[in-house]
């Protein structure tokens, strides 16, 4: 839409002069000469065809037209300043979509280190297993699980998933071989059961009935907690349970068998990938993944 606007470079001098009722003070505020302010105001008056100031011997006074214009210009400059502040703040904010279990068991306890080292960057996490939709949602990046490639996205692998059964230490004596799983309650981290099927295929037991005595959970974290509480055996990524294993809350009955379905990756639209805040977060995240 085409707008009929006065010369925009004259509005700040006018606003400053109207606020101070002084060309001299306006010039000092804007770091220009008094003559530059006077010429800008005169040009604005010529464009509008009205006088905006009464030039008194020792003072300025706004005309009726000047007061009307000042109200509009002040409101407009305030809105511009507010919008600019939001844009500037946005440059230091990161909206990141992350899987719930990955966030709880790996990211959150590490993120404090990033926030401490880079307090100028605010990382805002949104958890969910749904695929991050950059066209629909206002995300700068997402952590996803898969194998890619994803057209239009930059993808940086963090670490590969290492799937293996997990149970409470008290259940270890019941699991001498993978076939003993047939006598245990199977805890599924989701309804699709892909993780268990992949591991059983690796273990040479593709026909083992994982539905006979089983429970299905909404998240992997709940299945892991149920296993730690002794309610059965789940399958999960070893990278997400290292603390539980070290603390003796979980045990790995078959450490020699690890199925791999994909990896966790940081993805972002290519046009956002080089944002300084995102670059700093990516570099930190990749280093954390390497160290883990």
From TrEMBL:
Q: What is this protein called?
A: HTH lysR-type domain-containing protein
Q: Which GO terms describe its biological process?
A: DNA-templated transcription
MF-aspect GO terms = DNA-binding transcription factor activity; sequence-specific DNA binding
**Which family is this protein grouped under?**
Belongs to the LysR transcriptional regulatory family.
The answer to whether UniProt assigns keyword ATP-binding to this entry is no
Q: Where is the HTH lysR-type domain?
A: 6-63
Instruction: Report which superkingdom the organism of origin falls in.
Output: Bacteria
Mind listing the UniProt keywords for this protein, alphabetically? Answer: DNA-binding, Transcription, Transcription regulation
InterPro entries, per the entry: LysR-type_TF_proteobact-type, LysR_HTH_N, LysR_subst-bd, WH-like_DNA-bd_sf, WH_DNA-bd_sf
